[in-house]
Amino acid sequence: MTRKGRRLVLIGSAVGLLGLAAGLMMFAFRDNIVFFYGPTELAQKQPGPGARLRIGGLIKEGSVKKLSNQRIDFIVTDNKSDVAVTYVGQVPDLFREGQGVVAEGTLVSAGEFRADTVLAKHDEKYMPREVADALKKEGMWNEGAAAPAAAERGANDR
Amino acid sequence: MIVETGHYALVLALALALVQSSLPLWGALRGDAPLMAIAPPTAVMQFLMIALSFGALTYAHVVSDFSVANVVENSHSLKPMIYKISGVWGNHEGSMLLWVLILGLFGALVALFSRGMPDDLRAAVLAAQAWMGSAFILFILLTSNPFARVFPAPIEGNDLNPILQDPGLAIHPPMLYIGYVGFSIVFSFAAGALVIGRVDAAWARWARPWTLLAWTFLTLGIAMGSYWAYYTLGWGGFWFWDPVENASLMPWLAGTALLHSIVVMEKRDALKIWTIFLAILAFSLSLLGTFLVRSGVLTSVHAFASDPRRGVFILAILVFFIGGALGLFAWRSSALKPGGLFAPISREGALVANNLLLTTACATVFVGTLYPLALEALTGEKISVGAPFFNVTFGPIVAPVFLLMPIGQMLAWKRGDLVGALQRLVFAGVLALVVALVFAAWRGEPVVSIVGTGAATWLIVGSFVEIAGRVRGRGAPLGTAFARAIGLPRSAWGAAFAHAGLGVTLLGLAATGWGVEKITTLKAGDSVDLGPYQVVVRALETRPGENFKASVAPSAILSGGVEVARIEPSRRYYPSREMTTTEAGIATLGLGQVYVSLSGENDDGSVDARMYWKPLVSLIWLGALIMGLGGALSLSDRRMRIGVAKRARAKAPSAMQAAE
Question: Are residues B520 and B598 in the same domain?
């Protein structure tokens, strides 16, 4: 084979492989990505039942009900709209009323969500960024007031 | 005073880095020997100054000097000593200081251990390294000063995030950084070679040991990070396709590709442009990782603080170095002469296939990691891309790598014999099939796991077929075979072990499909069946710790009524941060593990627990250790030793012939 022929083989296989990768990615993006909504956004966008979503907000005070068989019901709120969430399984260490939470699962009907994964924060200092943004969008959160632990401590130190 | 000395030493290091980045480069371009000779001593001094600075910060943490802001925010007088030390890099400022420490370390190592290297190349490489050193030291001094004082000094510190108070964290970041930042020196080699316009097989021989060193540490660092996540996060998972993990996986994939293409460049003087490009790419991806992790673009346990100024600064560094290197590459690479010819079916051809697959796999990780960020920036839509995406894209692209690895090892340079290679691999293929069938009969579904065990066997056995052929030849007696095995170059053994290590990891991954998971509520005296074992909870109790309070569920693991292990899963409450962490109880039984983690406590005194039996799971990390061992073996090969490369070159072909 000539040098040119060999180069063609090489370039051909590289392009073929990249094409395959691009195809796989398009396919995966169609089926495997999950959109994130805050409760108000969810009410506005009204995705159909069965849609796989992530929702995030604050866990409404007084809404957490521990039922039998590890089932936990709670309400995710941005203080404007609420979503009722049901979840079977264990909640993370920092799952508490009034705290930020992100739940991934499927929408059963408008305003009712069945979660299969519940994520809370790694650390008391941080609000999940999506949650902070969603709350900010609804004007229910401002940087200074809602990160008091970190901000105040920082201020006193200096 | 010591703290101020540390700060001052860092300023001095910056001054030295600036000298090192300019004068030797000028000397290299002008052929001025005295100017070039400035590089090695300044590189060593620069490293010592950064080390002094790092030592000063460590001292402040060790003695709990609460007049230093960094110590106040991340330490506590009651914290155990090991975490006072690891707390130095358990925060943004300290981890950046560790970053420049390693940047300086690699500069100093090149200065000290490459005496036989051409002066102009060494000067240019050290100058390039110092450009990066200058940029990052400037970043620390301007935006993230770890030595800032607090007045008045508080009596007590805020403590380190408890999730970071773990022995794994004491070792994992330095390991990962040596790997991550280690690619900086390879990047500098590429930039230096482009600047002085000499890119040849000799360059590959100089750059290869450093690539191997960085790759070895990155492999071990990623494995340790994965194990840390596995046992501290309490979810039983070891890889989450989290952007932070992807940020370390991308340089690893590019670095692995580089490790293979640089061999082709050294042995056959081919793939020069591509190798230089990969050298730039590997460290560019490390820089990108630093940007993603440190700028607060992503929210994670690694994003210590999000200060927009820092993000912009790192972005500027990123754009400058990646853009600069690629510009230099575009400008100079056209001058490179094409090297040795090879047929598509040959060792080179196989290594090219390896490179294509690895870089494409890297591209899928890149897209999956950055697409959500780009989409959010452009449209405001928030999406998350998780394991399902990567299973569909990354999986099919990496699968052929497993299939091709043993075949590639069997092919000769220039022109290979595919049929011959396959014939010699029949044994490995048959064994793989047998193992897969045994697992299918014994454990059954899922199919992916069965195929995985077959592929893993193929890899492990196939990796050693080439060596076995060289050693036994056509039935050499055992004594001769043993002598030959000892006499083989260590790099041959290194490659075999590294490849087999990947097979071992794959076996561990495949076996996850046969795991057992139970989510239940436990009371004292409860017994739970978990795969082949029973877990019996002896008691539920509360115990005090050094700086926390723990609720513990001491349990026994029984096999057929006989106790085989004891575990103490617990939840720790850290009052200083009002935070709870989960300490999983893990018992390694054979190669599998019983994993129990507690989550909430209930009002009736019972606890919720997540319980797993994970067969063969320890192989995942054991495989990575074997890969690291392979890297170390290769590195110890005398041909890799810097300075003896020229003499060893004459010997290389004889070793190669045996493989054909």
Answer: yes
